[in-house]
Amino acid sequence: MSTTATGRRALFACLVLVTALGALDQTIVATALPAIVTELGAPSRVSWVVTAYALALTAAMPAAGALGDRFGHRRVLALSIGVFVISSGACGLAGNVEFLAAARLAQGLGGAGLLVLPQAVVAGAVPARERTAFLGPLGAVYAVATVAGPLLGGWLTDLASWRWIFWLNLPLGAAAAALVLVAVPAGRRPDAPARFDTTGAVLLAAAASGLVLVTTAVAETGWHAATVTAAAGTAVVAAAALAWERRAADPVLPVTLARDRTVLLCCLLALAGGIGLFGVLAYVPTWVQEVYRTSATTGGLLLLPVTAGIVAGVNASGFAVRRWGAWRPFPVAGCALSGGAAAALASIGEAPLPVVAALLALLGLGTGLFMQIVVVVAQDAGGARRAGAVTAGLAFVREAGVTVGAAVLGALVARAAGGSYAPVFATAAMCFAAGFAYALALPDRRLESE
């Protein structure tokens, strides 16, 4: 289904706001944690506030996409915003860490829909060839919001109270819900199967929850009998989930689509790019502070070149694909550029900060060239009926990769001689090298404009 130019502008404004809300809440709480501990106490349990959101977000992504395909993307997106707003209000009223963590868990369930469904909505309203230009700015919004989250969280905490981090979502969420009802096309209600894949949703949620909890525990306490046992249990549950989804009549996560070479390679590219980019982003501020002996503010500001590169990359590749239809050169060039930048960061030592900033910008630019294209290509290969599930699957794979990658990179830093961060950049370079191979294997075909 297509929309008019005016309708697309309204749709774009709506999805920008929704995407920003979902992306901000992944990082906005980090800088407020000291203030939360001061007011609510329980420093040993404050990590629950962050872990609960990440756990719910990752676990709910497959279900959010599948529910959108079954009941309509507009309806499920509006419901997701409602859950997100109500739980945000509850977060702001929290009187102890336990209540705040529970409210954050509910907020993450709504946040999953905010991050997955906008891209699925675009798949139903915009032809594939034009979709890259439409999704490019949304990818830029996600990148900017992710980096701006800690800065905004710290500013609100210093200016007023950490509670305003959550209360700010109430008016913004209300505006987003109104825009969804006005601007998002209702579309034809999909032909719903007889039963929703509840078993698959539960198994996938359990596997995702185990993944988040195990990686968090390993990062805090290392490997020991309890974490090894938990990791083994998570692997068993994940295997059971995949086995179930392969034979389910209408699976939450259509793993059989991985038989399609294009969908599989796009998932692998999303995984490689997620680990490579977000693994570097997680450690750049600390690396700059420790190696260059700068302030925390300067360390945070070094994320801005990465963000600027991503913004330039997603928009340049999106508009180029809309004009010419050819998309395959961008993943190939993007992985080569990001991989080269990461390799240079691993080997330069204490280069001047302007050189570091330039290399980080190139890393962001390379990733931006393909991060949204792989979504459109996978949606096109998976078909309109599965747009939500395919989009959710890509997001799920990327988030799982980021979670595991952060834990692995943290372990590498801890074991490196002299606290060197070179292993972080070297690992990112290897991820992009793998992505380069996946990109070369992608079929060379054009996206259609109808």
UniProtKB/TrEMBL annotation:
**Can you give the residue ranges of the Major facilitator superfamily (MFS) profile domain?**
11-446
Q: How does it sit in the membrane?
A: Multi-pass membrane protein
> Major place of localization?
membrane
**Mind telling me which Pfam families this protein's record contains?**
MFS_1 (PF07690)
Any idea which UniProt keywords this protein has?
Membrane, Transmembrane, Transmembrane helix
Its localization reads: Cell membrane
Q: Which InterPro entries match?
A: MFS, MFS_dom, MFS_trans_sf
TM helices/strands, residue ranges: 46-64, 76-95, 101-126, 133-152, 164-184, 196-217, 223-243, 263-284, 296-318, 330-349, 355-378, 390-414, 420-441
From what superkingdom does this record's organism come?
A: Bacteria
Could you tell me what this protein is called? MFS transporter
Source species of the chain: Amycolatopsis thermalba
